[in-house]
Amino acid sequence: MRMRPYRTVKNVITGVVITFINITERRKQDDHLKVLLKELQHRTNNLFAVIQAMIRQSAKHSASISDFESQIAGRIQGLSQSNALLLDRDWQSVPLEKLINSQLTPFIGKDNARIEMGGPAVYVSSDCVQTLGLALHELATNASKYGALSVPEGKIALHWEFTGGGSVPEGFRLEWREHDGPPVKPATRTGFGSFVIDRMVNSALNAKVEIELAPEGLRWTLDMPAGQIERATEKAHSREPRDRQGTKMN
Fold it and tell me: Could you tell me if 115 and 142 are in contact, meaning their C-beta atoms sit under 8 angstroms apart?
């Protein structure tokens, strides 16, 4: 509220002018900004902790300086992709298809035929985007070195679904299957990638992970509580368009 005297042309005060300005929306925006800044600080601290762990583990399992540099660069890029999605969506949940595409695009480019995706349109909570993005990055890295993405004809199939509970599902399953790649060989050593796709995902997402070195290619299955996943039909806004042409959605 602002008040000022009302003066005549002879500079005589004959009244008062009171002006009211509604600042409700401004205050709402300020409060929203404060929440975002706190969330950003929290996530930045977590991000630094993950990067420190990456550096330690990558250095421990790298054969050379160049190998270390390559691993760190790729993993930081993967983290950057996940955080870019979160920033773009105002730190809200992210479409699973977008998260998958963001992590696999650096490895396959625009070659859509190498990736097959199937499952309901769902959103991944902001709390698990980073962890799931890291796992997808490590799976794609491994596939590009030793698996299906290391040969031109190799392909990857991803399928996801809700499990148990009927109309209110209890769990969510995501499966990564490689096929048409080179013969699968057991790993001779474990590194940060193995830690991410198994123990880190297990702990951070309260999930169960199964890894199978099947003859036709690696199979990685993630079972986690359904609370971190939301159907697109349950979102207040309309479903976003797909990023890639040719992806198959059941």
Answer: no
Q: Please count the other Cβ atoms lying within 10 Å of the Cβ belonging to residue 129.
A: 26
Whole-number Å distance between alpha carbons of 150 and 148: 5
Say how far apart CA 139 and CA 194 lie, in whole Å: 9
Instruction: Note whether 219 and 212 are within 8 A (CB).
Output: yes
The encoded tokens of residue 144 equal 């590009």
Number of C-beta neighbours around residue 96 at 10 A: 23
Q: How far, in Å, CA of 1 to CA of 88, rounded?
A: 37
Q: Which residues contact 117 (CB under 8 A, 6 or more apart)?
A: 97, 100, 157, 158, 159, 247, 248, 249
144-162 burial string, b = 16+ CB within 10 Å, else e? bebbbbeeeebbbbbbbeb
Mean pLDDT by 10 residues, the chain (250 residues): 92 93 92 85 81 81 82 87 87 92 89 89 92 93 91 94 85 95 74 78 91 89 93 60 39
Distance of CA 220 to the CA centre of its chain: 18
What is the amino acid identity at position 93? S
CA–CA separation, 216 vs 183, rounded Å? 7
Residue 124, amino acid: V
Q: For residue 108, which amino acid is it? A: I
